[in-house]
Structures are given as structure tokens and as C-alpha cells.
Amino acid sequence: MLTDLMGGALADADARRLARPLSAVETAAHDRAPALDALAALAPADRIKIIAEIKRSSPSRGSLAEITDPAALAVSYETGGASAISVLTEGRKFHGTLDDLEQVRAAVSLPVLRKDFIGTPYQVFEARAAGADLVLLIVAALNQDTLQTLQDLVRELGMTALVETHSADEVSRALDIGASLVGVNARNLSTFELDQNLFGTLADSIPSGVVRIAESAVKSAADVAHYRAAGADVVLVGEALVTSDPIRTLSEFLAV
Ligand SMILES: O=C(O)c1ccccc1NCC(=O)[C@H](O)[C@H](O)COP(=O)(O)O
């Protein structure tokens, strides 16, 4: 359930804060080289773009791939033509860490997304301190005031928020906070059900000028073509890449 995932992520962030207080993380965030321009990297183009995800495990699918060297996988993604890298940093169910993100940041020159259950400024500062250029904000998990506060902080730190939605109301809430990247996740994060047609039903409500990202349930080039035909500028892909030869799979997906 999304509430459990968010609760666990917030508890883990609180535990980290005991060892590394907010002031130290803020300083580290401000000391980082400026964030890369993710908006430019993901801007609409005459071809589909891909955010390639580092994903070891998931609540819906269990263990997917060992991934002992996330940096090497990220380099494969960059070689294969990905436009950005998503790193799942949640530990309990996805078995990711912020250290994974730091390793990826050091290995590639693409924008890097911190994909996690983010609900506090501390986690946003942590993301920047680890070198993230993008931060995931899940509309379903946040009230509107918190969503706006986190979006403002992400911007102040020079990063870009990928604002994730799963309904027309959530798209509207994402646009209300000025999101420039709106994701539609085919996966219901509470039931884990997948609806590949959801993106198509919501895409028209995302205005041009806002990057449209279709997330989850991409297993084949035909799935990429399906999302592209429905108006996706970008697809975010996890499982299909970590369970295959990523360079070959990216090449097939990018040929759409
Ligand atoms: O993947 C899950 O099971 C999951 C469950 C609950 C919350 C989030 C979850 N995944 C995060 C993602 O949104 C996906 O990792 C991402 O969109 C890639 O999906 P896929 O290509 O289907 O692995």
C-alpha cells in the first residue's frame, strides 16, 4: 500500500536524520555542482525518450535483478541512448540506497532522478546532496500544501520535479503546482494493478509545454509505440531493462 511505503520511507529518513542532521544535509546539497537541466534532456522531440530505471526489487514483482554495480548499469543505459536515469533509493521494498544514486551520479553525465517516497524537505535536500537532478513527487501521497512546498524547494535547489499522477484530479493538482514534468503511472500504487490505457485517457489534459511521461508496464517495443501514439514524450522503464540486455532493449525501444 502507498501509505505503508510512504510511512516506511519517512521512518527511514528520520533514522538517517539522527546520524546526519538537516543542517549537514543542507550544506552538502548547496556544496554540490549545479543540477543538470533535466527539462532540456527530456524535452519533446521527434522521437520517444527513455528514463531508464535502476530497480532491484519491487512490492508487486519481488526480486528482479541483483544489480551489484548500479554505476555500471547506468553506464549501459547511457550507452544505449537513455535520456535520464531513475534510481530507486527506497530500501525496504526496492532494496535501493542513496549510495546507489551517488555512484550513478559519478558514472554518467545524464540527469539522475531520485525515485522514492518523498514527503519532507529533508529527503529533498538528501537527493540534491547525493547528486540528484530530479526528484519524484507522488501526488496521491501528498496533500496540496506539502506538494507545493516540496515542488518549490526542488526548484530552489535547481532541480526538477517529476510529478506523478494516476487520475484526472491528480493531473489537475500537478498542474496547479506548476509541474513541468508530469508522469502518469500505469501502476496503481496501492493495488499494484496496471492500466496501460490510463496514459491515453489523461494525456490530453496535460498541456503542451509540459513534458508527458508514461510510467510503468513497458515490456516491449509495441508498448513503447502504444504510449508514443497516445502522446508520450518520454517513457519510464524499469523491469524490462533490468531483466534483459539493456543496451539491446533500449535500442529496440528507441527504434519506435
Ligand atoms: O513497481 C512496483 O511494484 C511499485 C509498487 C508500488 C509503488 C511503486 C512501484 N514502482 C515504482 C514505479 O513506478 C516503477 O518502478 C516504474 O514506473 C517502472 O515500472 P516498470 O517498468 O513496470 O518496472
Order of helices and strands: HHHEEEHEHEHEHEHEHEHEHH
Largest sheet: 8 strands, parallel, barrel
Q: What's the architecture, going by CATH?
A: Alpha-Beta Barrel
DSSP strand content: 15-25%
Helix content: 40-55%
Mean pLDDT: 98
Query: First CA to last CA: what distance?
Result: 34 Å
CATH class: Alpha Beta
User: What's the number of helices?
Assistant: 12
**Can you tell me the number of structural domains?**
1
Instruction: Write down how many β-strands occur, each being a DSSP E stretch of 2 or more residues.
Output: 10
What key phrases describe this protein's structure?
TIM Barrel; globular; binds ligand LARABZUK; two-stranded antiparallel sheet; 12 helices; 256 residues; alpha/beta; single chain; eight-stranded parallel barrel
List the helices and strands and how they pair.
Elements lengths: L1 H18 L2 H10 L6 H4 L7 E6 L2 E2 L3 E2 L6 H11 L3 E5 L9 H10 L4 E4 L5 H9 L4 E5 L5 H13 L3 E6 L2 H9 L4 E5 L12 H5 L8 E5 L5 H9 L4 E4 L1 H4 L3 H9 L2
Parallel strand pairs: 1-4, 1-10, 4-5, 5-6, 6-7, 7-8, 8-9, 9-10
Antiparallel strand pairs: 2-3
Helix pairs in contact: 2-6, 4-5, 4-12, 10-12
The structure holds ligand LARABZUK.
Describe the structure.
Helix content is 43%, strand content 17%. The protein is globular. It is of the alpha/beta class. Strand 7, helix 8 (168-176) and strand 8 (181-185) form a beta-alpha-beta unit. The chain has a single domain (1-255), classed as Aldolase class I (TIM Barrel, Alpha-Beta Barrel), CATH 3.20.20. Helix 2 (22-31) packs across helix 6 (121-129), helix 4 packs parallel to helix 12 (246-254) and helix 10 runs parallel beside helix 12 (246-254). An eight-stranded parallel β-barrel has the order 1-4-5-6-7-8-9-10, surrounded by six helices. The site of ligand LARABZUK has 20 residues, from strand 10 and helix 11.
